[in-house]
From TrEMBL, chains A, B:
Family to which the UniProt record says this protein belongs: Belongs to the DinB family.
Example GO molecular function: metal ion binding
Taxonomic lineage from the root: Bacteria, Thermotogati, Deinococcota, Deinococci, Deinococcales
Gene3D superfamilies the record matches: dinb family like domain
UniProt-recorded name of the protein: DNA damage-inducible protein DinB
Length: 160, 160
């Protein structure tokens, strides 16, 4: 990894901390749903929050694999059937959090700023990483509405 | 602004482009609401999307002022009454987009990575900027649920 003495806007370590803060909040959001609603309740026919959270597992796994292998094909995003069960979801979640801590701080800056042909268009691995994080924030915001519709208080957004 | 030849994860210019992509998507979300629903409709007693969008105007104005002045006090977040009217909201939105283009690419990297006491806790201006962007994504995701509840198709998330 190239080191520089000059000030930088964001380091891979800071990006890792930023994402992990979001991931802890998303984990609390998963936990906030009643057992019988996580994979069934939604508003207006949208996907239940458990399904959205499994999508986050899929996109995060795809991203980590691509950052490691530099393979960006769609097949990395293929959907396997997922257990409709909170414990399995949380276990997959925690495994990925450990992978992020192990893999993201050490990414090469030159690699992260080189454009690739990825399923979301031609962009850098840095952009793809933000896309993955932003997609998580987007769907978690939807989960907040589901919780409100269930009469439940979502976790505090500012707490990471 | 300090320049470096070494590769970096994110430049102020790239951060500006990233945010402006989100802002264009949020603007399309504002436009997607029917006139008579933007400031009135919501799910489960949450704030209407027009109100959430004005909050984004407030937090973005606060951030840009703080990046310029290095003043981070709460008073910068004080709420003035806002017109319940889409045209006024979009006009404020566009003014801020122009300010972001004019002001964000030139921020000093040393300043952006120095911790400050800001209303969301002790953090760097870079973190405060991401907090502002993430809050926009979060609330926009809620707006997507409102649109679905109104039987309307939200704008495509991947289009920026």
């Amino acid at each position: 990894m190239t080191q520089t003495e000059a000030p930088v806007l964001l380091t891979p370590e800071a990006l890792t901390r930023h994402w992990q803060g979001h991931r802890r909040l998303t984990r609390r959001t998963i936990e906030a749903f009643p057992d019988d609603q996580l994979f069934s309740f939604s508003v207006s026919g949208m996907r239940p929050f458990g399904t959205l959270a499994w999508e986050m597992v899929t996109t995060t796994t795809y991203l980590l694999n691509a950052l490691k292998s530099d393979s960006w094909g769609w097949e990395g995003l293929s959907r396997e059937p997922r257990p409709q069960e909170r414990a399995a979801l949380l276990s997959a979640w925690d495994d990925l959090s450990a992978r992020i801590d192990a893999e993201l701080p050490g990414v090469s800056l030159a690699f992260m700023s080189t454009e690739k042909d990825i399923p979301f268009g031609r962009q850098t691995p840095t952009s793809a990483t933000f896309y993955t994080i932003d997609n998580e924030i987007h769907h978690r915001g939807q989960g907040y509405v589901y919780l409100r519709a269930l009469g439940l208080e979502p976790p505090a957004f500012y707490e990471r």
